Amino acid sequence: MKRHLDRCAITPYGREAGSSRVRVFEWLDRVGTNFTVGSYLSLPDASASRLLRHPVSVAGAELRLGAFVRARPRRLLLHREASPLSRGWWERRLLTSAEFAVYDFDDALQWDRGEGGLARRLAPKAAKAELAVRHADRVIAGNAVLADWASRFQRDVVIIPSCVALEDYTRKPAYVLRDPPRLGWIGSRHNEASLLLIADALTEVHRRTGARLTLVGTTTRSLGALESFIDRIAWSPASQRTALADMDIGLMPLPATTYNLGKCGYKLLQYAAAGLPAVASPLGVNADLLRQFDLPAPHTQDDWTAALLELIDSPQDARERLGRAARGVTARRYSYNAWLPRWAAALELGPVT
Question: Quick one: pLDDT at residue 50?
């Protein structure tokens, strides 16, 4: 590594992880400047089980963080955390080593206090996120909820939403219902259990209409009785590009937790990018997106059942109108093209090509 770095980006995951791809790699692909990137193990996540399988690589990743500190970058972007093992020391050292340091986060890390296994309790994210916000020169928050919290510890906070590249999604070509109707969901194995929140609604809609559920993510069966009408597709850039356009209605249920108040509504934006009408829990940013897209915002199982049946029973042109309107709003307000100048300005990169 060079003794002194010009531009540096640090993220805990590789490009296949949604958060790092959306908040770091997609932006770097669009700016006309070179960044040295440190992505810890470059894996889709940094779960304890993965770390235990790669002890030598973990040791190497920790050593590389020290090299980044010694290189004293002129511009530093730190996304979420530097190391899953750190209790804040790496984040503080990195942010204070740079001439100008920006901390970016897109989840309510401030309310993640290590619930779960031993590894998470040893390095909770809440205190680490607060420390990073305090030591950064500027903070980029994914939404107003996160920005309001960050503003308690940092005067310079800007909001830049998680954006989508519309060109990465096949636009839905037709709105005639599949036979049987096709409900859809996209995400990781860590959050697909949210579909169990609406299991009764999905089962009732399946009983009445024969609708099946397509899951784009993991191929591991984990949803009990729902699996009888689930078809699974492994996530890849190619499957993400095409699978949403083959669905009739997208789904985004969320448990009503404090942590989920900080979510950036990314699944809804993905569905919209494909021109797909969707139904989602009106929590946090979701509530605002649903209003902008004029889409259903159910609270109870009965609400979910009614919303899904109404969309299924709607005329083809009504679903098309909703899907195309959502795509238009996303292009204007939540695309990388719309936000690139402000992202580059937040990192003080100068004009972008």
Answer: 78
Q: What is the pLDDT of residues 277-321, one digit of tens each?
A: 999 999 999 999 999 999 999 999 999 999 999 999 999 999 999
pLDDT digits (tens, 9 = 90+) for 228-269: 999 999 988 899 999 999 999 999 999 988 888 888 899 999
Cross-strand pairs, 44: none
Q: Are 322 and 277 in contact (CB under 8 A)?
A: yes
Q: What are the tokens at 276?
A: 């797909």
E strand map for 25-137: 36-38, 75-79, 100-105
Cβ(192)–Cβ(224) below 8 Å:
no
DSSP class per residue in 98-115: SSEEEEEE-S-GGG----
Q: Give the three-class secondary structure for 231.
A: strand
At 230 the three-state DSSP class reads strand
Q: Report the C-alpha gap between 311 and 305 in whole angstroms.
A: 10
What is residue 118's predicted lDDT score, i.e. its pLDDT? Answer: 55
Predicted structure pTM score:
0.92
Give the whole-angstrom CA distance, residue 7 versus residue 185. 37
- Give the full edge-to-edge strand order of the sheet including 230-234: 230-234, 212-217, 182-186, 249-252, 278-280
Tokens matching residue 290:
């649903």
Residue carrying structure tokens 């936000």: 339
Q: Which pLDDT score is estimated for 134?
A: 98
Rounded Cα distance, 195 and 60, in Å: 38
Half-sphere exposure for 37 (CA within 13 Å, toward CB): 19
Distance spanning both ends of the chain, measured CA to CA:
26
| pLDDT tens, residue by residue, 147-175 | 999 999 999 999 999 999 999 999 999 99
Instruction: Identify whether the C-beta of residue 125 lies closer than 8 Å to the C-beta of residue 309.
Output: no
Closest Cα partner for 266 from 257, 278, 248, 249? 278
State the number of CA atoms in the 13 A half-sphere of 177 facing the CB.
Answer: 20
**Of residues 33, 12, 34, the one with CA closest to residue 23:** 12
Q: CA Rg, the chain, in Å?
A: 21
